[in-house]
Write a structure and sequence with these properties.
With 414 residues, the chain is mostly helical. Helices cover 71% and strands 0% of the residues.
Amino acid sequence: MSDTLHIVATTMLSALGLAFLVWLYYYTLKRSYDPALIIFKELLTVALVLGEIFFVRSFTKQLGGGMVGDFGTAFVIVGSIAVVGIILSIVWTPQISDLISSPLTNLFDGGHQEPEKKPYYSIAMASQKRGHPLEAIVAIREQLAKFPTDFEGVMLLANIQAEDLNDFPGAEITLNRFCASPKAPDRQVVAALTQLADWHIKKTVDVDAARATLQQIIARFPETEYSLRAEQRLAHLGETGKILLAQHDRQAMNVPAGVQNIGLLDSTAFLQPQAIEPGKLAAVYVKHLEQHPHDTEVREKLALIYAQNFKRLDLATLELAQLINEPRHMPKQVAHWLNLLANFQIELGADVATVRATLEKIAEQFPGLPVAEIAQRRLGRLNAEFKGRQPTPDVKLGVYEQNLGLKYGRPGRP
């Protein structure tokens, strides 16, 4: 039984060794610059070696048959071996030198590593600049046939269709086809849909279509930073639509008559634009946030009104807390709101411990980021910042002699 196992193990090891040699030969052949030339050199080498072996054996038999000591025959054998060696050295010198020098040269030229295959759009971009958009589209489609999900090519094609050819429906089809591909990365899909929404507003002034496009981002990537940005854009989409509609449908404006004899008036204060009452502005912001709760710009403005106009630290803290506790916001934004909350706390009478706890949240949530380092520096000078906010006590000056500089002579002398 042991002999059988030994035979089986030996056979398997031999097969594995042979398979490894075959794989090594194939790998080496595949990495070579000219596999056909290598095969030709190998066949030539085998032919020369076999021919030399046959030639040497034939002369060896002659030497063994009574011609021992025939130096002429021995010289022929040695000479033939030398000739074969010279031929083989000439044939294989490029490969041998490459094997020796490749570790050094690979540091500069990359060696046998195949270059990354990627599309090139230089011809298309040059055609676009020359004012030949159709030629550019042909060049782009040739590259996209090889790389169908290349984002740069898709956006370049859609841009030429929308901007150069004024073919917005074609650009929309191009972007929608790309977004429908399962291989398209999420970030690129969001960028394509955002660009499509911009074109809906710019090209067709179709706010509803732009809103539907942004809703696709929210539905496709819920609870992500992409959906948060889309929600923030939706919050201001109505204002953008009104501006664009006003540009396309300009109405006649009635300009009221100016004030007569303005230079003779005692005061022109009544001509200055009146500021909106903070209470009314806060009510508008609250109503807006009921419809668009993720509008960070409006919520921050509402917090400013609560803190600066109404001196309500509690209400300002509630608004900023909603922004700070949203996990989809960027660290830089959260740090900004925490610093703003610390400013409100200092201005509205919070103690040092409360402000310190607010600033320490930045370092706790974002360790290693620049915002944490900035927060640490502010914590270091927090006491000085509190002292700077304290009112300076009034200093009562004494009563001094009047018209001292108008008197002659020294004090005490006439």
